[in-house]
Amino acid sequence: MNSSLLLSIVTFVYAASAILYIASWVFKKSLPAAFGRWVALAGLIGNMTGIGLRWIESYQMGIGHAPLSNLYESLVFYSAVIAIVYLVIEWRYAMPTIGAFVMPLAFLALAYASLSPNVNDRIQPLLPALKSNWLIAHVITCFIGYAAFAVAFGLSLMYVLKARHTGDPQSLIGRFPDIRVLDELNHQMIMFGFLFLTAGIITGSVWANSAWGRYWGWDPKETWSLITWFIYATLLHARFMRGWQGRRIAYLSMAGFAAVLFTYFGVNLLPGLHSYGAMGQ
């Protein structure tokens, strides 16, 4: 089985996990969530196996590089990290309702990679400037940060819905985790993601200097990465210095994730060194 076929199968495994978590939330049953957890873990194992197989395949083709160089490969890695971050949260806090809002994001990332005709899944040789270990460090740190922000987005959406809910505590929204828990988890995920995004920007600058002789060139993705960094920096500043909590932080978190999505997808429509169309030959 080649890596692309395996990862296509994993797409449906993540879909099954998301459906099980949603069913557990909607029908007030714990058993679907328990199955959803194991299905998510199986999907993660398949996801990581697919990444490993793709790495091996690239060496067999005489190309030999880490599978982190184009849109397809980054989406595959992104979905894996979202699943990892979520499963750690569930193991730590035992709140499976969160899975109904996070596992669909892992599914959507991998579905776009595997099923969209606009995403090329071919293994391609790297441009000379990309043949650097700094590429691996840069992509891994950035996407760990992006995954944490995706989870924070799910938590923020839950918080906003919970904050507006004044009805039956046994209703769909009433069964969300306590609002203070959602706020604290959201803060922790943003802190975690911010640290890794910062590391990603720093490693990217070092890589740019070694590849192109300058640390910063105001490439569209560099610019939008900085904008995203400033949004989350503003959020953290408002929380630490102004005491902001709750709904205002949730809205800023959602705005930050919108910036993440534009940095990830929208910037690829613009010409620049970070366009995924320019990352292979």
TrEMBL record:
This protein's UniProt keywords: Cytochrome c-type biogenesis, Membrane, Transmembrane, Transmembrane helix
Topology term for the membrane: Multi-pass membrane protein
Record has 4Fe-4S as a keyword: no
Keyword Membrane listed: yes
Main location class: membrane
Bilayer-crossing regions: 6-26, 38-56, 71-89, 96-115, 135-161, 189-212, 224-242, 249-267
Location of the protein in the cell: Membrane
Limits of the Cytochrome c assembly protein domain: 68-274
GO molecular function: heme binding
Xref: InterPro entries: Cyt_c_assembly (IPR002541), Cyt_c_biogenesis_CcsA (IPR017562), Cyt_c_biogenesis_CcsA/CcmC (IPR045062)
Gene Ontology cellular-component annotations: plasma membrane
One of the GO BP terms on file: cytochrome complex assembly
Name of the protein in question: C-type cytochrome biogenesis protein CcsB
Originating species: Desulfatirhabdium butyrativorans
